[in-house]
C-alpha cells in the first residue's frame, strides 16, 4: 500500500510544473491596443517568464512578472533584461519591472480596479515597497 | 572472552541502523516543515506589506516562535525523536535548542539558570552566524572598493 502511494505521488510531483500557457495581462486606462501588443511581444519573447501583468498609469509603467520555477536565482537578470527592453519601447514612461510575487499579486488585484487615482496611489506604494531591503 | 570475540558478538546482536529509512523520514519531515514555512511566507506577502526580499525576517521569527511553543508543550521532542535531523536542521531546531536549554536549567534560578544557559546550545549558532556575516560583508566591501562587484 505504501509503495502504491509512493508510485502514485512521484508522477504528480514531477508533472506539477508543466503547462506552458503564458498569461499576460495589461491594465491601461486609455486602452491603447498598440501598447498591449508591444507588452505581449516583449514578454512572449522572454523564455524565462511564465506570467506577466503590466499596468500603465499616469506616465508610470509597472510590469510584474513571474519567473519559471527553478529560475528564481535568475530573477535579477530577468528584471534587468526586461527593464531595458521596456525602456526602449516606452521611452515616455517611468518603467519598473519586478519579478517579486508581492508586486505580481497586487498588480493582478488592480486589474479589476476602475478608479484611476486608486491605481496610481497603489502603483506608487508598490514602487516604494520594491525598494525596501529589510 | 577475547576482545575480538566480544566485538563480533556485539555486531551480531546489535540491530542494523536503518540509515535509508532515517534519511527518508528526515527528508519528508524537513520538507513538510519547509512547506509550512513557505505557506507562512505567502501569508505575509498576501496579507501584509512584505515583498519576497523582506518577508524572510517575519517568516523566520514566526517559525522559531511556533517551534518554541511546541517545545514548551513537549510536542517538539516527540517530533525530534521521530524525524531526527529533519526537525533539527530547519530553523525550528534553533527555537527548540533555546527553549529546551531554558527548561532544563530553570530549577537553578532565573539569572544563573535560565539566563546563563539559555544560549548554551544555540549560542554557537548565533556566534557563527554573526562572525561569518561580518567576514562575508568585509570581503564584499573589499571587492566593492576594488571595483570587482557592485553592492
TrEMBL record, chain B:
A Pfam family this chain is assigned to: SpoVAC_SpoVAEB
Entry keyword set: Membrane, Transmembrane, Transmembrane helix
Q: Which residues cross the membrane?
A: 24-47, 59-76, 82-103, 124-149
Q: Protein name, please?
A: Stage V sporulation protein AC
Amino acid at each position: 500500500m505504501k509503495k502504491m502511494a509512493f508510485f502514485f505521488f512521484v508522477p504528480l510531483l514531477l508533472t506539477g510544473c508543466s503547462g506552458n500557457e503564458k498569461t499576460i495581462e495589461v491594465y491601461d486606462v486609455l486602452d491603447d491596443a498598440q501598447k498591449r501588443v508591444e507588452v505581449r511581444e516583449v514578454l512572449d519573447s522572454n523564455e524565462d517568464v511564465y506570467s506577466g501583468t503590466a499596468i500603465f498609469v499616469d506616465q508610470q509603467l509597472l510590469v510584474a512578472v513571474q519567473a519559471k520555477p527553478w529560475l528564481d536565482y535568475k530573477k535579477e537578470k530577468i528584471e534587468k533584461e526586461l527593464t531595458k527592453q521596456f525602456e526602449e519601447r516606452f521611452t515616455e514612461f517611468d518603467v519598473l519591472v519586478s519579478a517579486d510575487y508581492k508586486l505580481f499579486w497586487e498588480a493582478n488585484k488592480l486589474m479589476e480596479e476602475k478608479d484611476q487615482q486608486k491605481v496610481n496611489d497603489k502603483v506608487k506604494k508598490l514602487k516604494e515597497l520594491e525598494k525596501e531591503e529589510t | 572472552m577475547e576482545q575480538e570475540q566480544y566485538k563480533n558478538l556485539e555486531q551480531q546482536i546489535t540491530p542494523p541502523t536503518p540509515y535509508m529509512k532515517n534519511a527518508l523520514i528526515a527528508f519528508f519531515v524537513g520538507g513538510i516543515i519547509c512547506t509550512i514555512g513557505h505557506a507562512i511566507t505567502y501569508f505575509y506577502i498576501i496579507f501584509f506589506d512584505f515583498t519576497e526580499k523582506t518577508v524572510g525576517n517575519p517568516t523566520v521569527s514566526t517559525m522559531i516562535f511556533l517551534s518554541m511553543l511546541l517545545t514548551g508543550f513537549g510536542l517538539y521532542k516527540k517530533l525530534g525523536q521521530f524525524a531526527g535531523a529533519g526537525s533539527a536542521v530547519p530553523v525550528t531546531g534553533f527555537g527548540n535548542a533555546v527553549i529546551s536549554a531554558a527548561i532544563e536549567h530553570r530549577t537553578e534560578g532565573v539569572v544563573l539558570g535560565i539566563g546563563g544557559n539559555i544560549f548554551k546550545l544555540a549560542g554557537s549558532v548565533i556566534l557563527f552566524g554573526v562572525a561569518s556575516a561580518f567576514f562575508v560583508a568585509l570581503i564584499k566591501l573589499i571587492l566593492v572598493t576594488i571595483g570587482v562587484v557592485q553592492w
